[in-house]
Design brief:
Strand content: 35-45%
CATH architecture of the largest domain: Roll
Number of helices: 4
Oligomer: single chain
Structural class: alpha+beta
C-alpha cells in the first residue's frame, strides 16, 4: 500500500488514496501504522473516497484507531494530498467530513503543489448540550470543575469535534499530559474531549499546547486553535478577530467572523512517500 506522510503545525498524518487502496479494518490499520515504535508513526491516518455531496470525502482515524469526525490540521494535509495527486483538480473545492462539508482554498508553489491552505470551518457551537451532559447552563464558559482535588476553570465548545480550553498564566503550573488526560475523561463529556492549554502573548497572539482525544499530546491541533481563539474572543481575553495561534509545532492563523464562523489557514508540508 502506497502512502504519503505530511505535517501541518507539527500535527503529522499518514495519507492513503482510498480510491485505489481498500481495507476492511481501517481502525486496526491506523493503530498499526501510527505507532511511533513499530509503525510509520503519526497522530492520525486519513484516506479519501468518492462523495455524493462534495468533491471528495475525508475519512479520519486517530492514532488509537478511533474514528474522528474532523481534524483541522488533518483536513489541510488531506486537501494538499488530493490536490497534489490530482484526485481533485481545482484550487477551490468541497470536502465531506463526518462533521459536515468544509470549503477549501489553496495556494501553490512554483512546482504547482499546494503549500498554503485555508479552510472554512463554519460556526463554533457554544451550546453545552452539544458536548456535555450538563443541563444547568446553556454554555460551558469559565466553569469551575474539580480534577484530582484541584479546581480548574474551563470552557468547552464543539468545533466539529469537542474541545475544552483552559487559560493559563504560566505553563509550569500545569502538567499538560497528566491534566489533559484527566480532563479528557471527565464524565461530564458525552464523548470525551480534546483539551487545550492556552496562554495569551498579546492581543493578536495566543500560545497553545494540546492534549488530543484519541492521540494524546500532539504538537498542534487545528480545530483546537479555532476553538481556543473563539473562546478567547467570547470571554474578552482578546477583542481581535484575526488571531495567530502559536502551537508547539507551528503557527495557525484563525479568523473569527461576527457570527463566530471560523476561517483557519496555514502551511502544509509533505514529509515523505513510501509503501508498506
Amino acid at each position: 500500500m502506497k502512502f504519503t506522510k505530511m505535517q501541518a503545525a507539527g500535527n503529522d498524518f499518514i495519507l492513503v488514496n482510498g480510491l485505489e487502496e481498500q481495507k476492511d479494518n481501517w481502525n486496526e490499520f491506523a493503530k498499526k501504522v501510527c505507532d511511533r515504535h513499530f509503525g510509520i508513526g503519526a497522530d492520525g491516518l486519513m484516506f479519501c473516497s468518492e462523495s455524493k455531496i462534495a468533491d471528495i470525502k475525508m475519512h479520519y482515524y486517530n492514532s488509537d484507531g478511533s474514528r474522528g469526525e474532523m481534524c483541522g490540521n488533518g483536513i489541510r494535509c488531506f486537501s494538499k494530498f488530493v490536490f497534489d495527486n490530482k484526485i481533485v483538480d481545482k484550487k477551490h473545492f468541497l470536502v465531506e467530513t463526518d462533521a459536515g462539508i468544509k470549503t477549501i482554498n489553496l495556494e501553490t508553489d512554483e512546482n504547482g503543489e499546494a503549500i498554503y491552505l485555508t479552510v472554512d470551518m463554519e460556526k463554533v457551537n457554544f451550546r453545552a448540550d452539544s458536548i456535555t451532559n450538563i443541563t444547568d447552563s446553556e454554555t460551558i464558559l469559565n466553569r469551575k470543575v474539580v480534577v484530582d482535588g484541584r479546581e480548574i476553570i474551563l470552557s468547552s465548545v464543539l468545533m466539529g469535534v469537542p474541545h475544552t480550553v483552559v487559560f493559563v498564566d504560566d505553563y509550569s503550573n500545569y502538567d499538560v499530559n497528566d491534566l489533559g488526560r484527566k480532563i479528557e475523561m471527565l464524565d461530564i463529556f458525552k464523548n470525551k474531549t480534546n483539551v487545550n492549554f492556552v496562554k495569551k502573548i498579546d492581543e493578536k497572539t495566543l500560545e497553545i499546547k494540546t492534549w488530543e482525544r484519541g492521540a494524546g499530546r500532539t504538537l498542534g491541533c487545528g480545530t483546537g486553535c479555532c476553538a481556543s481563539a473563539s473562546v478567547a474572543k467570547k470571554l474578552g481575553i482578546t477583542n481581535e478577530s484575526k488571531i495567530l495561534m502559536k502551537a508547539e509545532g507551528g503557527d495557525v492563523q484563525v479568523e473569527i467572523k461576527e457570527d463566530y464562523s471560523i476561517i483557519m489557514a496555514g502551511k502544509v508540508e509533505k514529509i515523505c512517500i513510501g509503501e508498506i
